[in-house]
Amino acid sequence: MQFQGRLTKAGTTALVGATLRVADAGEGGATLILTRADMAGSTPVTIAHVLPKVGGGDLRLRLSTGDVLRLPADMDTAPLERFFPEPARLGSWLTRLETVGWRGVLLLSVLFLLALAGLRLAIAPAGDFLARLIPDTLVERASGLVLAQLDLALLEDSRLPDETRQRLTGEFERLRLLAPPAFADTRLHFRHAPAIGPNAFALPGHDIVLLDELVTFANDEDVVLAVLAHEFGHVVEQHALRQIMRSAVVAIAVGMIVGADESVIEEIVGFGGNLVLSSQSRAFELEADHVSADWMQRLGRDAGALPRFFSKLQQECGGLCDGGGLLATHPSFRNRIEALTN
Ligand SMILES: [Zn+2]
Question: What is the DSSP secondary-structure string of 142-176?
Answer without folding.
Answer: HHHHHHHHHHHHT-EE--S-HHHHHHHHHHHHHHH
